[in-house]
Write a structure and sequence with these properties.
Strand content: 15-25%
Number of strands: 13
Shape: globular
Number of domains: 3
Oligomer: single chain
Helix content: 40-55%
Order of helices and strands: HHHHHHHHEEEHEHEEEHEHEEEEEHHH
Distance between the termini: 30 Å
Structural class: alpha+beta
Length: 407
């Protein structure tokens, strides 16, 4: 069977919960990792249903990233555990059933991202002592707010959303998804982790040559326990023995001009939130802005200063909107990062937190009215200790700490 035929066969596998459970049967999976991963898969199946993965695949063309790669790669496993733990912790919160129903029935990536962001804010805030509600109406005739946080006399209403890639970027992302899944198949087959970089999209012949070389190198490494380097135009990879992997794969980047799309989305969501009673906007930029632009390569202080200059003039048109909390999501940390906080003018704050599972989040907190100026520090409190949230949640459910789980 050629590599292309094998990849096609892999894609033709019917995605089931049992398929992903079986991946934990490897003798190289630690008991702690197996326990936590199986617990997370059970949580998802119980809430989403036995046929959810197959329905999602038929609708969106892929299995959700955190489930598809969660059994093999640290960052995906971290996201899988985060989401499963938030579903469990917030299970009895007002409106949680509605959030789960929307995830179960609306099988689009943007709905899943939206629901995950609601759960993220709720999970982080619950740890800080806030009472959380989802899809909560300020008045019987008003539209619901996505999330409401209450602590004493303090109430924070917010609208959550994600800005995803445009059509061209989505096509590129699908290409990299196919490449990463093919590499993952070789890793699973030979138990030989693969690290390195592919810096551009390869044509069909280059792709075949690369995977032929990877397959041969993986066979040799499995037999000799010696690493093998694969280098060709556009790709430099290292096939390693189990237990010494760098667990880092970097793929090609594309510069993007994203602000007009972001601004349009901000205006739309600000109008929606204002109709629901105002409050904050909470957004993840997953469109490449945080990875593939000159702004992304600036320091944290420069980022919060520049993004505030763009955001405030937009939100000033909506007096009931208190501000915007903006982040890159819990992204794969490609490179070395350290935690940092960077206050800016008008009570804006930039935070960088290095998260468990080879991830990093940068969070921009930008108030836009008097109420927002008073509440901005509350957002700092909610996101300040995110780097310890996963272990806190694992302990609550009697699961091993991340230091025992990590691949």
């Amino acid at each position: 069977m050629t590599d292309q035929e094998a990849l096609t066969a892999w894609h033709d596998l019917r995605p089931t919960w049992d398929l992903y459970r079986k991946m934990q049967d490897s003798p190289h999976v630690s008991p702690a990792r197996r326990q936590a991963t199986l617990w997370a898969l059970d949580q998802f199946e119980r809430r989403m249903g036995p046929d959810w993965l197959e329905r999602y695949y038929r609708t969106s063309g892929h299995v959700p990233y955190e489930i598809n790669l969660g059994g093999a790669h640290a960052a995906a496993l971290g996201n899988l555990l985060d989401l499963a733990l938030r579903l469990a912790i917030l299970d009895q919160v007002k409106g949680a059933g509605q959030v789960q129903k929307e995830m179960r029935t609306d099988l689009r990536d943007d709905r899943r991202r939206h629901s995950a962001l609601q759960l993220e804010v709720g999970g982080l805030a619950a740890r800080e002592g806030y009472a959380v509600a989802f899809e909560d109406r300020r008045d019987p005739g008003a539209p619901p707010s996505d999330v409401v946080l209450r602590a004493g006399e303090q109430t924070i209403r917010l609208e959550t959303f994600a800005v995803l890639r445009d059509k061209r970027s989505q096509e590129a992302a699908r290409y990299w998804d196919r490449i990463s899944q093919a590499i993952l198949r070789i890793e699973w087959k030979h138990d030989t982790p693969i690290s390195g970089s592919i810096t551009r999209q390869l044509d069909e012949q280059e792709t075949i040559e690369l995977f032929d070389a990877l397959e041969q190198a993986a066979q040799e490494t499995a037999a000799t326990h010696q690493p093998r380097e694969i280098s060709q135009p556009g790709a430099d990879l290292l096939v390693e023995s189990r237990g010494i992997s760098r667990h880092t794969l970097e793929f090609g980047i594309e510069e993007t001009e994203s602000w007009p799309r972001i601004e349009s989305k901000l205006r739309q969501k600000a109008e929606q939130a204002q109709a629901a009673g105002g409050g904050w906007l909470r957004a993840d930029l997953l469109d490449g802005t945080w990875a593939f632009t000159p702004w992304a390569r600036a320091g944290l202080q420069a980022k919060i200063t520049e993004i505030s200059k763009l955001v405030r003039p937009v939100l000033n048109h909506y007096p009931a909107i208190s501000g915007l909390v903006l982040s890159n999501g819990a992204s794969v940390a490609q490179g070395q990062f350290v935690g940092e906080s960077a206050p800016s003018s008008n009570e804006s704050y930039g935070l960088r937190r290095v998260l468990p599972a080879v991830r990093v989040r940068e969070t921009m907190i930008i108030p836009s009215n008097a109420e927002g100026l008073k509440q901005a520090r509350q957002w700092v409190k909610i996101y300040n200790a995110e780097d310890t949230w996963l272990d806190w949640a694992l302990e609550r459910h009697g699961l091993p700490a991340w230091g025992e789980i990590r691949p």
